[in-house]
Amino acid sequence: MNTKFWFAFVVIIAVGLFGCDKIPGLGGDQQAPPPPAPAAVQPIPGQPMPGQPVPGQPVPGQPMPVQPVPGQPVPVQPVPGQPMPGQPMPVQPVPGQPVPVQPVPGQPTPVQPLPGQAMPGQPVPGQPAVPVAQPVAPPTPTGDKIVDRLNTKKFQVAADWIATSALLRQRLDQKKRQAYQVQLPGPPYCHTYVLAGEDGIKDLDVTVESPTGTTEAKDTSQENVVALQNHCPTTPGSYKLNVTMTKGNGEFAIQVYSKSR
């Protein structure tokens, strides 16, 4: 038998008796080499690192960033707790002060009262209340054509004015004139003169003369129902009303109405 055969035979016997870990070159006390350290990851230009979000991709739980569109304005992102541009700043109440009212577009702005001032339409403490004009009902027909015409005209031009003279009636022929003396107060009162005639009268005219003889108001209409309005004398006194039957014949009535300016 040759040398190789005997060497192999001896190795087999040794493995059977002692195990391969005790035989030099087949295990023994030789330690295994340590595993290689992981290589450091180098970033690639333009690419995200592992574990970093990819640009343009949504991050779970975070709002998507708004990408600008070429030629379009960049949308404004709201900041929590701050108003958007063009929106009013929230008004913080001041202790002891009234809360300002924010206007609503297209709606009238409510009026806030100032301390010590009354709201519009409300009486001012310590000041006399301003009387509110009450609606005046149309006149009730009386059956007298002249009186009904006078009352209707007065309702049309001076509904809430007060009569300050008696109702004067007179019959006149054409081209005739009748004068009346009336006592008129001065400022702040103004006066309206209403005349009405029957059907036979075509043109009834009136003028107002001051106590000094100056003509202060004059009617230029050509009717049998006349209203000479808003004569506001500067001084009180006895004024003269000159009525002329310019055209026609018949009976007429005249009355004076007054109101404070």
pLDDT < 50 runs, ≥5 residues: none
The count of strands amounts to 9
And the CATH topology of the domain at 145-260? Jelly Rolls
What is the CA–CA distance across the termini? 155 Å
Average pLDDT, all residues? 78
| CATH architecture name of the domain at 145-260 | Sandwich
Largest sheet: 5 strands, antiparallel
User: What is the CATH C level class of the domain at 145-260, in words?
Assistant: Mainly Beta
Instruction: Please report the number of helical segments.
Output: 2
Run of helices and strands: HHEEEEEEEEE
Helix content: 10-25%
Strand content: 25-35%
Spatial shape: rod-shaped
- CA radius of gyration is 56 Å
Which structural class best describes the helix and strand composition? Answer: alpha+beta
Structural notes for this entry:
The chain has helices at 3-18, 145-157, and strands at 162-163, 168-172, 177-184, 189-197, 201-209, 215-218, 225-231, 237-248, 250-260. It has 261 residues and is α+β, with helices and mostly antiparallel strands. It has a domain at 145-260: Jelly Rolls (Sandwich). The strands form two sheets. Strands 1, 2, 4, 7 and 9 form a five-stranded antiparallel β-sheet that branches. The protein has a four-stranded antiparallel β-sheet with strand order 3-8-5-6, with no helix packed on it. The mean pLDDT is 78.
